[in-house]
């Protein structure tokens, strides 16, 4: 890539004056909030996605998924007419000065990075005239992908184009506030590219913007999520140790976390979502290269994947303890989304738990205020109808709606000897005891010995 100062200055000025046309490719939980954040800051943005249903929803002012403020920002953008959506990527790229790529980079069934969407975007980019454009990749990448897949079409002879790897860091559910308040990493291809990207992100990020090389930025994204996954695995294992010792994880963490350098995470039914269950695998699978060996990261991943089995075993033990027949018992599952206040069910621990219960012959009723996904169970929209005549209620997601429930009303609707398996510690044990429940959680219970 070479640089003519004039063109660089022109694009920089356009970015600062908010006159640059922005295109965001991929309108999922990262791309859509990113696009609307730039709209809110004053840019004209065109969002591109291959999913026509999603495009239609946005065009009709409907939020395609649950996300704080998303619905109102879509509606506002319809009024100010600065946000348009399209399925025609080539055309939109040609008309844009800045292209931000936010497509999903999942893993395949055999746990290898699936770069289909990114390759298809790169294909479109390689066919377009990218002169005087800034190309930014936000998608999580197996290390080496930016260099191997993206740079070749940015750095073409006789073409002036700039590029950076800018990993997204937003937490689904609070995307808009996190885009603003979380510091941002810019992995620059060269100083000019970094300067342009920084000018752009300065308009939506109020926190620090950290410049580094694209190689460090690529790996930093994966390490951040791996760090969280490994810490959750540790919390899950300590939770199970607490069950063996008969102490309460919450009390243990209250005590341990008073130490200035200890921060125990929270045990639960397992780790779901589109990020944590796959980013550790991306970290260990460099672009076009052999998988890296790892003990801690892979074992942590496997441990978290086994947590649904542990919850299933707690359910069986609790039913036995109350002399309830496991087969034909009525189980209400509260929460199929992978975490609180989102509608996303990707890799949700609920899927495995519900399937195991159904295989055992349980009658499974399912509620989630944000999604009708039920993984084969019987979906009920109303929470109190869901728990009616149940033997056991298992909470798998700590949605706000569940926190407001009155346990006395719940136990009144259930069969005799009600059981509450509260994997997210939504309720206090004492409160559950008072309402007549047998209270069981990951990291706390008084159940008898393990069964086979
Ligand atoms: N979980 C626990 N215990 C905890 C924390 C979380 O069991 O103490 C579980 C949740 O219930 C959920 C899963 O982990 O099933 C993941 O939830 P999360 O809230 O940790 O994270 P995500 O996947 O929604 O978002 C993560 C974030 N990464 C980090 O916090 C390091 C976010 O900042 C990233 O941008 C996002 O991944 C992403 O897109 O990569």
Give the topology.
Layout: H1 5-16, E1 21-25, H2 31-40, E2 44-48, H3 52-59, H4 70-80, E3 83-86, H5 89-94, E4 98-101, H6 116-127, E5 133-137, H7 145-154, E6 161-165, H8 175-181, E7 184-188, H9 191-201, E8 209-213, H10 214-245, H11 249-256, H12 279-284, H13 296-305, H14 307-321, E9 330-334, H15 349-359, E10 363-367, E11 378-379, H16 383-387, E12 392-395, H17 400-403, H18 407-413, E13 419-422, H19 429-434, E14 438-440
Parallel strand pairs: 1-2, 1-4, 2-3, 4-5, 5-6, 7-8, 9-10, 9-12, 10-11, 12-13, 13-14
Antiparallel strand pairs: 6-7
Helix pairs in contact: 1-9, 2-4, 6-7, 10-13, 14-15
The structure holds ligand SAJ.
Ligand SAJ binds next to helix 10.
How would you portray this structure in words?
This protein has helices at about 5-15, 30-40, 50-60, 70-80, 90-95, 115-125, 145-155, 175-180, 190-200, 215-245, 250-255, 280-285, 295-305, 305-320, 350-360, 385, 400-405, 405-415, 430-435; strands at about 20-25, 45-50, 85, 100, 135, 160-165, 185-190, 210-215, 330-335, 365, 380, 390-395, 420, 440. About 40% of the residues lie in helices and about 15% in strands. It is elongated and about 80 Å long. The protein contains 19 helices and 14 strands. Helix 1 (about 5-15) packs parallel to helix 9 and helix 6 runs parallel beside helix 7. The strands form 2 sheets. It has an 8-stranded mixed beta sheet, sandwiched between helices. Bound molecules: ligand SAJ.
């Amino acid at each position: 890539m070479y640089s003519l100062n004039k063109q660089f200055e022109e694009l920089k000025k356009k970015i600062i004056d908010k006159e640059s046309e922005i295109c965001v490719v991929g309108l999922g939980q990262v791309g859509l909030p990113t696009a609307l954040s730039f709209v809110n800051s004053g840019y004209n943005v065109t969002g591109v996605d291959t999913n026509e249903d999603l495009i239609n929803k946005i065009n009709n002012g409907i939020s395609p998924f649950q996300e704080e403020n998303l619905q109102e920002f879509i509606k506002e953008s319809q009024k100010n007419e600065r946000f348009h959506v399209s399925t025609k990527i080539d055309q939109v790229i040609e008309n844009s000065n800045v292209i931000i790529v936010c497509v999903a980079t999942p893993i395949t069934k055999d746990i290898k990075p699936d770069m289909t969407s990114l390759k298809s975007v790169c294909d479109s980019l390689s066919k377009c005239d990218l002169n005087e454009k800034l190309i930014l990749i936000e998608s999580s990448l197996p290390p080496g992908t930016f260099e191997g897949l993206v740079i070749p079409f940015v750095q073409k002879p006789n073409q002036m184009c700039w590029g950076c790897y800018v990993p997204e860091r937003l937490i689904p559910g609070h995307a808009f506030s996190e885009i603003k308040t979380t510091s941002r990493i810019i992995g620059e291809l060269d100083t000019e590219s970094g300067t342009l990207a920084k000018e752009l992100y300065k308009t939506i990020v109020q926190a620090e913007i950290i410049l580094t090389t694209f190689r460090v930025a690529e790996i930093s994204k994966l390490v951040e999520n791996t760090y969280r996954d490994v810490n959750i695995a540790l919390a899950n294992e300590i939770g199970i140790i607490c069950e063996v010792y008969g102490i309460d994880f919450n009390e243990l963490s209250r005590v341990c976390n008073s130490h200035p350098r200890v921060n125990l995470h929270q045990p639960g039914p397992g780790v779901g979502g589109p990020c944590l269950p796959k980013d550790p695998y991306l970290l260990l699978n460099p672009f076009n290269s052999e998988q890296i060996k790892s003990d801690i990261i892979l074992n942590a991943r496997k441990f978290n994947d086994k947590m649904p089995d542990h919850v299933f075993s707690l359910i069986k033990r609790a039913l036995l303890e109350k002399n309830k027949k496991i087969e034909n018992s009525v189980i209400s599952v509260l929460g199929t989304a992978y975490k609180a206040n989102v509608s996303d069910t990707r890799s949700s621990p609920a899927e495995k738990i519900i399937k195991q219960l159904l295989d055992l012959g349980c009658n499974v009723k399912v509620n989630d205020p944000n999604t009708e996904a039920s993984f084969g169970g019987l979906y009920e929209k109303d929470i109190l109808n869901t728990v009616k005549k149940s033997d056991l209620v298992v909470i798998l997601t700590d949605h706000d709606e569940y926190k407001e429930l009155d346990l006395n009303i719940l136990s009144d609707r259930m069969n005799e000897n009600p059981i509450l398996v509260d994997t997210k510690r939504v309720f206090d044990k004492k409160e559950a005891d008072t309402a007549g429940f047998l209270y069981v959680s990951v990291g706390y219970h008084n159940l008898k010995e393990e069964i086979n």
